[in-house]
Amino acid sequence: MYMGVGLSFIIGSEWVPSPLEVNSTGDVGFTADIESISRLSSSNSDSAMYTSNHSVKVINMDSMRTDIMNLLYSECGLAGLIFLLCLLYLPAKPPTPPSTSASVQRTNYKESLGSVARNKSLILLGLANAIPNGVFGSWQAVLDVLLDPVGMNQSEVGWLGFYMTAAGGVSGLLIGRFSDIFLRHTKFFLILMNGGAVLGYVWFSLMSSGIIPISKVEIYISAIIGGMLINGSFPLVYEMGSELAFPVSEAVVGGLLTCFMEIFAILFLLVLLIPDIGTSWMNWSLSGSLLLGFVLLFLFPARYKRTDINNVVVHVNAEDKYDDSVNRNTITGYLASYDE
Q1: To bridge 211 with a disulfide, which of 33, 134, 186, 206 should be the other Cys (CB 3.0-4.6 Å)?
Q2: Whole-model pTM?
């Protein structure tokens, strides 16, 4: 996933050229504000658009539209090919359960929906993840607009997005390994990573707003640190959600957490429809959403159902020589001990 998202930043910025603009004096390369570009892109003609001080016309709008459609068609074809390969090859489950908890019968779909709806800990975790990560996903889509005033072109921003995502993939693997070693500390790692992301993007926002001196190197550092920590926390969020909801299917938990995240991503994009909203609010909304998610992480009680069952069954097996009836009784008793 991380590789695909990271490459999309590079492919999109290199495939589709930046708008080539000419102002009323005939100077090519004049940069229009985002509201003007939005008005022109939604129109049916290449009429001149107006900024606060200049009349500007984008002279390569037709080629941009063609390139965007070609890019979307190519991505659709690739997604269809991967889907077909999954249907032909991907097995429904591994030959043997990878852990004791994986062999436990999951609740049916209808009961799962009721269970997750009543699970306050899971709902809090979902909000703590969805608010910052939903905003972050939409914020990345307009990153080139936000960094244009500091002199970063579309290609540079594409590579920055790639570095942010790739760093997140590496950090996710490393933190996941630490989480396996230090069991029952997933919540602590989530708080640590989200706290670091808050600091990184507050630094980014202060520079973008001109409150502190800005430099391209520091923009790279703050954005990559923040992206590394946010993207790296995704696997832990889904792991923690599965622990809280067990024995609800991980597919149901993953779908719920993703749905929450997409709702807040849409809300961020809807704000862009407000006339003359500008762009300065975007960085601070990201920082604010990260801070809110960071606070919510402290509120949900962490429970490690799957981990506890695996550990208890391993202990029981050491004394009872891997008696399957003992395993079943132990699992049933442990699940009953949790008060939903």
Answers
A1: 206
A2: 0.74
